[in-house]
Amino acid sequence: FPVSNLQSAFFNLVMDVDHRASDVTHGINVFVGLVLCFTMLGLGCTVDVSQLGEHVRRPIGVLLALVCQFVIMPLVAFLLALAFSLDDVAAMAVLLCGCCPGGNLSNILSLLANGEMNLSIVMTISSTLLALVLMPLCLWIYSRAWINTPVVNLMPFGAIILTLCSTLIPIGLGVMLRYRYTRVADIVLKVSLWSLLVTLLMLFILTGAMLGPELLSAIPPSVYAVAVLMPLCGYAAGYGLAALFDLPPSSRRSVSLETGCQNVQLCTAILKLAFPPQLVGGMYMFPLLYALFQAAEAGVFILVYRTYREKVLHKADPLRDGGDVTYQ
Fold first, then answer.
1. Which residues contact 260 (CB under 8 A, 6 or more apart)?
2. Whole-model pTM?
3. Pairing with 180, which of 25, 128, 172, 205 sits 20 to 30 Å away (CA)?
4. Name one GO cellular component term (predicted).
């Protein structure tokens, strides 16, 4: 692909940022990784083993989430890239994000939305495991519209396996902690969520300070539009499909959040492996944009839901909790 002046300018900015940030990047990555593992430990403390078994025996919700994750989301990314006439590199960044499995953010948001946590965790583990096969397949199907390079050969399978381990091991420890020490598990859950909130605020501040408006202004408006619409389509498709199959409300929210939330860290890793910074330019920012919008949009939905729950549902039926996981 030809390198435009805009991409060249962006590359120079990225190199400047990388030079200034080289001393802290590794430490930030390690710190964030530890916080995420601790958060998954806390989420493991919410797991009910009996209900977890119900989702394994009757995996309707899991199957719906996988259809949304590896059929609907790649198709949505493909269609949005075509609709907004994105260039080849921008389209590949969008497609890579759409083909990624669900991220751990969906588990945290599901907890905040009073979703079915057992289903949420099973969905995340299942999508990450199946991404070893389905993600290369989706990329092979759709990427040929823009490039001939075999991007699937650059898949960071080690990163996927590491993601799987960093999810399974802390959650397993959290389940054991809940089984043996209930009060300690409650404390771990609260501390893990607050530590994650503080970490996210720190990351937003650091990101803004390191990048600045120059990098953000280098991204075309069409890419911003895709970053806004793509998670919205995922949330809507997930909830709609779950409602179509008559899943309980808590499970619908979990399927919705699992569909719209993508593993943006994995997307960034593939972009770095597949394309040099001079070529990708501002598209290195797309996973970050997607992460910001998927979190912001989910936050709005959760705020609306919790307000509706407190002002309407609770007054109508104080005993209603929406926690039934029985499939109709």
1. 106, 231, 232, 233, 234, 235, 238, 294, 297, 298
2. 0.78
3. 128
4. plasma membrane
What pLDDT does 317 receive?
Answer: 56
Residues belonging to the chain: 328
Which CATH code fits 5-316? 1.20.1530.20
Tokens 């953010």 appear where? 105
Task: Report residue 230 as tokens.
Answer: 């793509």
**Domain residue spans of the chain:** 5-316
